[in-house]
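Memo to structure team: turn this sequence into structure tokens by end of day. - J.P.
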Amino acid sequence: MRELPGLAVILVLLTTGCATFLAAGHVQSGRRALLANQPETALGYFQQAAETDPNYIYSSARFPEGVWTYVGRAQYALGKYSEARRSFERALTVYKDDPMAQLYLGLAMVKSGDLKQGFAQLQRGLKSVSEWIDYLNYSKPSYAYWDPRGEIRGEIEKTLAMIGNEKVESAKDIIASAEWVGQEVEEEIDRVRRDERRQDERDRRHDFRRGFSFGARFEH
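Reply from structure team:
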């Protein structure tokens, strides 16, 4: 009987690990659908992930994005702006520094007609995305760069300048530009991961050649 508490802990850990694994799979499937412009299919996967592990945070290429952020993004793509707003707000209660939740919360607020607060939130979200990209490049600059040509950050600066003008007639341009940033960041995750895999492969080949060369010299 004394062993039961330890066994219970092990079972909890196994259950938690399994939930995280399942959530990760659902998010991966949802991301593929979202990037393929299939938001309804994506929403189904993301909701399954949220039900499985509501605190799950997807991290690829070191960029964090919570499961509720993905739920909200699919809802946003379907025009369900009020629902999306609630999902982004929930995402920020799980992880307050989620850059995409901050960005899309601003978009959902603007789309819902809350222009003043929405644009203020959108500014915070755009700055957060830009700061994350700078941080990722600074923290590991020699591996795989984010936004190497500066296109995403350039668009962010342009969008921030438009918001700063506070022209209501430019709202459509601001929304379109911010949505482009969100889409590009999601695609950049996969581009950076491909670069990382290629770098890993080059490193393995380099290490293999060094090991072979060292062994040959040693034998000689």
